[in-house]
Amino acid sequence: MKIELIPLQIHGDDRGSLVSLETEKNIPFDIKRVYYLFDTKEEVVRGYHAHKALKQVAIVVRGSCRFTLDDGHERIDIVLNNPAQGLLIESFMWREMSEFSQDCVLMVLADSKYDESDYVRDYEQFKTMAKNEYS
Ligand code: TYD
After folding, report:
1. Fewer CB near the terminus (10 Å): N or C of the chain?
2. 90 burial level (CB within 10 Å; 0-12, 13-18, 19+)
């Protein structure tokens, strides 16, 4: 399993820094939805789900948090702390987010509108689905 980190160009000058997110330029899908998490309590673990079809890119625009990604066979952990880096989360990927810094702002770009029926919230069900997907 490989983790895909998308480098995001910083347009910086003596006024500060700017990162632009654009469909097909640095985001590999049509952006249909953006949401962001902030004020997450440090001891909290969020996520605990996978998506059947949804693709997302997660960017920690401030602070840091840990992402655990699991494709049903392997688990990989990565700390995101760079606003110039996007983590691509493909469909059928179980995710857990933890160790949020107090100032963490986690922004997520998604290729579809919110759809509860796209969620898989049971890990054992996810494992079974992932097994069938790959076999
Ligand atoms: P939830 O899926 O529990 O967040 P996470 O799994 O990332 O920790 O979402 C929290 C609430 O926000 C839940 O009531 C659903 C709602 N929500 C939306 O209305 N739109 C969205 O795009 C998302 C991601 C969540």
Report:
1. C
2. middle
